[in-house]
Amino acid sequence: MDDFFFEKEAECCFDRDGDNPSDLERLHVEEDMAEIPRADWLLKTGLKQQKISVLASIPTILAANNSKENLTLLLDDIKIIWKRNETENDMDMLVEILNCLMHLAGGTCDGKLIAYPLPTLHDEYDELISSYHRQKQAATFLLSDDQVTKQLLPMVLDFVNDIQQKDVAEVASRCIAALVPRLSGSVKKTQIIRIGIEKGDVSQAAGSRLICCWVLGVLTASTLLSEADIESLFFQKMMGLCQDTDTDVRTCMCMQLDALARAVSTTKACADLLPELLELLQDEEEQVKSMAFRTLVSLYDFYPKKERESQILPVLLDVIAHTPSYLIGPLATSFGRLVFKLFTLNDFGAESSSVLLTAFNRLGRHAENEVRLACAYNFPAVVLSFGANQYSAQLDELLQALTQDKAESVRITAVAGLHEIAHLLGQQRALRYIKAMSLTTLRDESAVVQGYMIARLPDVMPYFCTSVDDDQRMAYLETVLKHILQHHTVLAAGKWRDQLRVVSALEKLHPFLSPIQLFERIFPLLFEMMNAVRGSVYGVSDDVGLVGRATGPARSRAHPCDPSPREQSPDQPLQHTRAPTKGVRPGQELLAAIALPRRVRLCCWLLQPQVHSTRLCRARTRPPRRPRTERAHQGSVPALGVEELLGSEYARRREAPHAHSHRA
């Protein structure tokens, strides 16, 4: 039956390729054939699907059989495939070949790809290039710089020179970008620049001109060339592409203007580049105008004050006051970054502040969820930029609307930034505006929103519980504890990330709570959660080291110098050195490994003279331990007692209940 379906699949493959189904023997590959000969044979005689599979695995094959001969052999096979499929216009094969060469240029010996990024707007590109350099420092590349320069570079340039289609322009540009950091400086200035300029000729197809934008953008953003080289070699070429007849070319060129302005002299950027960018903001195509707006916002803090006041800010304010539909998304996304630049450069005026605040309130009540989500994300930056004095009049109602938004994602994002807003407003305004909002959020219909608010409580508590009378503080704390307990009851089984978020918050809340609140509210909750974790783990196997490690003696140590649980101080997290038990779900494993030590530390802290030991003894509900073989046959898991959980620490404190104890 398997042979039958295999032959039918092969027939379909041959039918698509236009070959005779009788040639099924071409699919047969000797099982004992080595990897390199097999790859060579399939690249020369295999079907399209087989060739694509081999091309995708060439970096892995070479990592295990890396030699000059093997590399030369496989590269020769790729050249043959390229020439054959170039005439057939097979896009899938062309893309796969370019991806293969990119992986060879940026691939490491352990199979990872360290991709050199294509240029984007400044802040994003700066993060990408920093990440690339961090990865590069700790990596060993599969091919040496000499192999990349002498063998890959001529091959890639020949292939890219043949490409005219827009569909593969970006892939081809990424392939060249992967080569740039691996080559010598002289090569970069000659061969790469030449292919970039040639592809941008007006006689070339739109796909070629698009490659020109990307390639020259890579060289500009990478700071590999001097200011004089860029201005003399291809500055005018890039300016000419801003007026290209193809929409995609103009859009791509808008993005490159960000790096180009920073790479040339200030005079060139102000006299030649800025007018071109402002003209692109008036383009007939919406996607070009959208990219021009994003680039202008990115470059705002780059230009001198004269150009900002006379040319850039009036245009931006006019666009913000009368925002067209295609710019609503980009404006909402970049709003926080824009107003922060105005704030740091001291460019705020009465008119600009009014226009921007009005626009932000309008965007925060927009019908699309993504726009309101962007406003919720940017809210702390807006408060920072406009100051606390503007909050009550302009922003308080909007923040309340965002924390009660119909979309859960918007409410989560608004809640996630409440602690930053409270810090910016100061204690008096936070107590007036954010305190009631935090209680409202704790009553949210979504348990996820409640969990995010609980996670932020340790950060906002100092603003609500200090410099207030005891009645107000106790009333607020009682309400908070009530909602925390209610939140625990609505959490579904297996929501261990939400449980961990709550426990992490409880670990930081105890300085604000009284001993009675700790004992009567928090203590039962912690033991209920510990019993649930222990029950879920023991329910799979009765020999799990996660819980046993927290209470019993050490059976093994990860290192001879590692302390056993009985040798550790109460402040140290308990060590777990056993391998995960088969059958335990990842959520249970992580919850037990991370959350349990935190709960134990908090419970140890509760054993202080303020909480009488006789009251704690009531929590011990478990009978004396019986042999493991007897417990293994019981269906239910007994409750976990205080003394067994806390071990010698509990016994020591119980023997001297009135002695001075430190906080565990």
Automatic annotation (TrEMBL):
<dbReference type="GO" id="GO:0019888">
    <property type="term" value="F:protein phosphatase regulator activity"/>
</dbReference>
<dbReference type="InterPro" id="IPR016024">
    <property type="entry name" value="ARM-type_fold"/>
</dbReference>
<dbReference type="GO" id="GO:0008287">
    <property type="term" value="C:protein serine/threonine phosphatase complex"/>
</dbReference>
<feature type="region of interest" description="Disordered">
    <location>
        <begin position="551"/>
        <end position="585"/>
    </location>
</feature>
<dbReference type="InterPro" id="IPR021133">
    <property type="entry name" value="HEAT_type_2"/>
</dbReference>
<protein>
    <recommendedName>
        <fullName>TOG domain-containing protein</fullName>
    </recommendedName>
</protein>
<dbReference type="Pfam" id="PF20168">
    <property type="entry name" value="PDS5"/>
</dbReference>
<dbReference type="InterPro" id="IPR039918">
    <property type="entry name" value="PPP4R4"/>
</dbReference>
<dbReference type="GO" id="GO:0005829">
    <property type="term" value="C:cytosol"/>
</dbReference>
<dbReference type="InterPro" id="IPR011989">
    <property type="entry name" value="ARM-like"/>
</dbReference>
<feature type="repeat" description="HEAT">
    <location>
        <begin position="395"/>
        <end position="433"/>
    </location>
</feature>
<feature type="repeat" description="HEAT">
    <location>
        <begin position="273"/>
        <end position="311"/>
    </location>
</feature>
